[in-house]
Amino acid sequence: MYxxxxxxxxxREELVNFINHKRSLGYDYxxxxxxxxxxxxxxxxxxxxxxxxxxxxxxxxxxxxxDKESTSTQEKRYTAIHGFANFLILRNYPDxxxxxxxxxxxxxxxxxxxxxxxxxSIFYCADRYxxxxxPSMYDNNRMMPVxxxxxxxxxxxxxxxxxxxxxxxxxxxxxxxxxxxKNHVGRNIVVSASxxxxxxxxxxxxxxxxxxxxxxxxxxxxxxxxxxxxxxFHRILDNAGIQRRPSGKYPRLHxxxxxxxxxxxxxxxxxxxxxYTSLPILCKYLGHKSITETEYYIRLxxxxxxxxxxxxxxxxxxxxxxxxxxxx
Length: 328
Known about the structure:
- By secondary structure, this protein is mainly alpha-helical.
- The protein has three domains: about 10-90; about 115-240, Intergrase catalytic core (hpI Integrase, Chain A, Orthogonal Bundle), CATH 1.10.443.10; about 255-315, no CATH class.
- Helix content is about 50%, strand content about 5%.
- The protein is built from 13 helices and three strands.
- The chain has helices spanning about 10-25, 30-45, 55-65, 70-90, 115-125, 140-155, 160-165, 195-205, 225-240, 255-270, 275-285, 290-300, 305-315, and strands at about 170, 175-180, 185-190.
- A three-stranded antiparallel sheet has the order 1-2-3.
């Protein structure tokens, strides 16, 4: 656990309380966030605050986008001061300003939603993917068909899939344990019968498979890397005839997670579940820390799934605001 520094100024005690509070709730308040809070504290001190208060003008000045700065960096500053300000408000400090998310502008982004024909073509090309075997390389021929099916059928993050070890799996029961997912949220994933067969066949053909070995590893036992997977996936997309997007970038592996989310919600809607029931279930399955993250996934794909959009209007009328939808 990254150490908490000796903060200066009027916020020094409450910053320590805030970090300890977040850590007690299971949040990963490590070096990155601690350094961000220290930067924020220096900014507040520089504005001559001598007591515990955060005026509106100082708050907005801190989160203002700087020249040649990415919005992701701006968002990190907002996350720091928003969390701390909310903590101070809950502790009854009267002169603390806070605002909900004026920085993050995600509505213009649209994930690539693969069609059924495209998914079929991707698996067809993955099954026929060939690379030259070298001692220093990965077995893309064998791993990519399994990895892509795992991502498609479970909605698992690519980082979680590449971190899997054989000991994390009970293949006979079709159960996968994600021990340390994003934000340190652990969960169990149940796979379908067809995916269980794929995993069984894959594991049976591998040699020297111990409980601590990675499920997806190279000839020398090292873990399969994201960059290797991404490059192989791009070649598979090319072979499948799936073109780059107007931005010039390929559709992402992460878009399979969006597709899984939408399909899962559609299936539950067809079975009569309302979103009050299905969204919390999907939230836990995906490893989200809040239902807002899950709502974000379906917000992005409103133009492609009319049934789900109609169902959401009963759950939350403002979930899909009037937006100019970008073409996928």
